[in-house]
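Researcher: Please predict.
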Amino acid sequence: MYESNENLTFGFEFGQENFLQEFKAVNNQTEINIQQNRLAFWGGGVLTYKLSPVKDIAYMQPYGTLFLGGTNFGFITKQNLGLQYNISDKFAMIGGLEFTSLFSSYNNIWNQSHKYGATYGLILKF
């Protein structure tokens, strides 16, 4: 991640996660319901904006993240809101809520899958 200033960072992320997809398709003029659980390998660009630390909540920093990228079978977006707790200048903990949208096609028909989740982790700055 590259810090353009103390509030704005951008860079690249990659990872993998499962997506449960449910959609309708037409096969031989018959409508069928399709349900599949696919493993998505994803990567793309990420932009994070952090507010100034808030004294009333132990100097935690609220942040928001926007991710746009691709998977091995479609496009993906992730939006994240959370809190960052800076333990030192080089080490921090984060926790937040995430909304993910996956856009993929089946027989040239685009479908959407959405997920809500929790995120947490550690940050080590070099």
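Model: The two ends are 11 Å apart (CA to CA).
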